[in-house]
Amino acid sequence: MRPLHHLLERQIKQCFGDPESITGELQELVESVNDTYYQYDIDRNILVRNITERKAAEKMIEESEEKYHGIVETSPDMIFILERETARILDVNKSVCKLLGYSKDEIIGTVSGDRVVSEQRNSFKDELEKLKSTGMFFGEFDIRKKDGTTVTVEGRGAAFGDYAFAIGRDITERKRLEESLLEIEERERQHIGHDLHDDLGQLLIGILLKSKSMELKLQNNNPITDENLSEITSLLSKASQHVKEISLGLSPIVEEGEDSLMVAMEQIASSSQKLFNVQCAVKYDAPVPIDNERAVLQLYRIAQEALTNAVKHANPGHVEIYLKKEDNVITITIKDDGRGFSVMSERANGMGMQIMKYRANAIGASLDIHSEADMGTSVTCIFPDN
């Protein structure tokens, strides 16, 4: 398209001849049109640039929203968007639907807390009031799923303006393990009480009776023989050993130093042979150094649980504990030659197995259990010693 001022100048020439003969007023008109065109050209360029920048900004916002949506939808935790004042649910991610068994349409529009079990609803309402007033929310609640079962959820929330953002994490398994550990602790207390009463108590009574017997002999001026003293010495020795075994079971002596893990595994092997009459050996091709007392204690408990499970369920003749360290990764394998079991059996998901996994997770380790019927069982714990 030809510029406007060129078209106007050509028309003037046709009408009035050479531009030099044009009057001053017409010349001013031409110059005014010329200025107006250039100003239009500048404004047009600015407008185009502004539109380009706006389009770029809109694209960035769109990409950001897609990224946010992707993060929310793929999160393993449940995510809720709520109205701050009414706690009405405006949106949820896929994890909510997957865990609770409802579709989005069944959840959106309902009030948060409707699915909390009845005995906890008042506590949940109190937390919602805190969300309104302070902008923060926290609590553990049992939520009723669509199939009627319940799931324990740890919820955290924060308000922004008229809305609230809440995250719920399924802690059902964790709570179950915590309760099981408390039950195990209570059983252990009862077991220790029985040990103290039945075994150590009997030894102490024997020592008391022998001592009284010698006291009477002295009062009657009867001689005390070496045999009398040997009997008391023997009872004291047994009592001391029993106390040592009980204390070792309660709190294993984890020595400091780089060889603490190897020493701890030797302790398990030695005590298992005495307690269970099962041959147990610790094997390693090279020293396995570690400087992490907390990890050593958990690895000790994992190996102890694996060996106890083997003795209790598999009737093994031999148990071997293998230690290895490569590239700061420690591997412990407890292998027995007992009956074994199917990985689909109830034992594979029993409490002992769950507790071992719980202990492994506590130190950032992984646990693998492999077993076949009549082929024995191997429990492998891999710990990155960083």
Task: Spell out the blueprint of helices and strands.
Blueprint: H1 4-16, H2 24-74, E1 78-83, E2 89-92, H3 94-100, H4 104-107, H5 121-134, E3 136-144, E4 150-160, E5 163-170, H6 172-219, H7 226-250, H8 260-276, E6 279-284, H9 293-313, E7 318-326, E8 329-336, H10 351-362, E9 366-371, E10 377-384
Parallel strand pairs: 6-7
Antiparallel strand pairs: 1-2, 1-5, 3-4, 4-5, 7-8, 8-10, 9-10
Structure description:
Helices cover 55% and strands 19% of the residues. The chain is α+β, with helices and mostly antiparallel strands. The protein folds into four domains: 4-70; 75-170, Beta-Lactamase, CATH 3.30.450; 172-251; 254-386, Histidine kinase-like ATPase, C-terminal domain (Heat Shock Protein 90), CATH 3.30.565. Helix 6 (172-219) runs antiparallel to helix 7. The protein is elongated. The mean pLDDT is 79.
Keywords:
386 residues; five-stranded antiparallel beta sheet; alpha+beta; single chain; Beta-Lactamase; 10 helices; 4 domains; five-stranded mixed beta sheet
Helices and strands, in N-to-C order? HHEEHHHEEEHHHEHEEHEE
**In terms of structural class, how would the helical and strand content be classed?**
alpha+beta
Helix content: 40-55%
User: Which value, in Å, is the CA radius of gyration?
Assistant: 40 Å
Largest sheet: 5 strands, antiparallel
Uncertain spans, ≥5 residues at pLDDT below 50? none
